[in-house]
Amino acid sequence: MARQHMAQPTVMLLDDPSKDIDIETMEWLEKLILEAVQPVLFISHDETLIERTANVVIHIEQLKRKTESHYSIAKTSYRQYAANRAAQLASQEQQALSERREEKKRQEKFRRIEQAVDHDLNSISRQNPHGGYLLKKKMKAVKSLEKRYEREALDKTEIPETEDAIFFKLGEKVKMPAGKTVLEYSLDRLLTPSSEEEEPRLLAEHVFLRIKGGERVCITGKNGAGKTTLLKQMKEELLSRTDIRACYMPQNYEDLLELDRTPVEFLSVTGDKEETTRIRTYLGSMKYTVDEMNHPMSELSGGQKAKVLLLKMSLSGADVLILDEPTRNFSPLSGPVIRKILRQYQGAILSISHDRKYIEEVCTAVYQLTPEGLVKTDGEGV
């Protein structure tokens, strides 16, 4: 990124530039975008970055089970765009529901008229052919009215469908005592993993962390500080425990996902019909198409892979979640849904994140990993 900037380009094209950088570098990136004299076109999942820097929003969606593409362009801030979009969707939904209520009343009234005319036609006396003629004429008018209603129904306001409208529950039955010690981890020296290429290198000393039930802890720090190395070591201890049920979501989803299997196959335990139907229902609520359910997970986007792992955790009944950058692949409109689910989770969460919205809205405690160990912060400036 620095090299491209030094080349003094006439336009900057950035594809998810904040995905793998720490918070300090993200602040530098925000300054770079804000002070750029040339146009900057960037894709991002980072809501804070978008809110602070974008003055035009291009929003691309796939609707109707991903069979229809839709885009919106707004020359405004992201916050204003999101607020306008929410208000527009709410208004459209209200109008659509109102039209459907009116249509239902009209259809009920129409059916009553149709049944009355039909009854009179069936019971009319043969001695009154003129009355039969009038009733047939009336029935023709009723049928004409029915066709008109059908044409009007085609023009009714659609109930809005949005790409971010996912729904699932995480740890619905999890109830962990607030005083229960989930983790009490102490480490004299944190070293890089040993390899043939280089000797282990010291990352931090005197690391200590205590987590109790109901706490949602986040570890932050500079790139290369050793956060993932530390999390993996704590993960091994948590997964070996028998008094808790822990689940792990790595930063690299391929570490756990079997990419040649379908999402349904990966999530299945017994493989029976009832379980398969339930899994398909859950995946459908998370906006998976039938095609995505039946194809190998290697073909899924990063966000869809993340949803599979979150759903796996939900189905497992885990009361401790170990999450390495859990929100990094969710869109800015899916992010609030995921954060709300994690915020309402009743178990304990141990996580690493550079996502400032996640840290602010979900985490009850934030620690920064430094060479001197874990330092508790209040999250300000994050």
Question: Which features would summarize this protein structure in a list?
Answer:
alpha/beta, 43% helix, Rossmann fold, 6-stranded mixed β-sheet, 3 domains
What does it look like?
The chain is an alpha/beta fold. It has 3 domains: 2-81, P-loop containing nucleotide triphosphate hydrolases (Rossmann fold, 3-Layer(aba) Sandwich); 82-154, no CATH class; 181-377, Rossmann fold (3-Layer(aba) Sandwich), CATH 3.40.50.300. 43% of the residues lie in helices and 19% in strands. The strands form 4 sheets. The chain has a 6-stranded mixed β-sheet, with helices on both faces. The protein has a two-stranded parallel ribbon with strand order 1-2. Strand 3 (57-63) and strand 4 (68-74) form a beta hairpin. The longest helix is centred in the first third of the chain and has 46 residues, at 78-123. The mean pLDDT is 87.
Protein topology:
Elements: H1 2-6, E1 12-15, H2 23-35, E2 40-43, H3 47-53, E3 57-63, E4 68-74, H4 78-123, H5 129-154, E5 181-191, E6 202-212, E7 216-220, H6 227-240, E8 246-249, H7 263-267, H8 273-285, H9 290-294, H10 302-316, E9 320-324, H11 335-343, E10 348-352, H12 356-361, E11 365-370, E12 373-377
Parallel strand pairs: 1-2, 7-10, 7-11, 8-9, 9-10
Antiparallel strand pairs: 3-4, 5-6, 11-12
Helix pairs in contact: 4-5
Query: How much helicity do the residues have?
Result: 40-55%
How big is the Rg? 29 Å
How would the global form be characterised?
A: elongated
Please write the string of helix (H) and strand (E) elements.
HEHEHEEHHEEEHEHHHHEHEHEE
Q: How many domain units?
A: 3
Q: Helical stretch count?
A: 12
CATH hierarchy, class of the largest domain: Alpha Beta
How big a fraction of the residues is strand?
15-25%
**CATH homologous superfamily heading of the largest domain:** P-loop containing nucleotide triphosphate hydrolases
**Main sheet makeup:** 6 strands, mixed
- The count of DSSP E runs of length 2 or more, i.e. the number of strands, is 12
CATH architecture of the largest domain: 3-Layer(aba) Sandwich
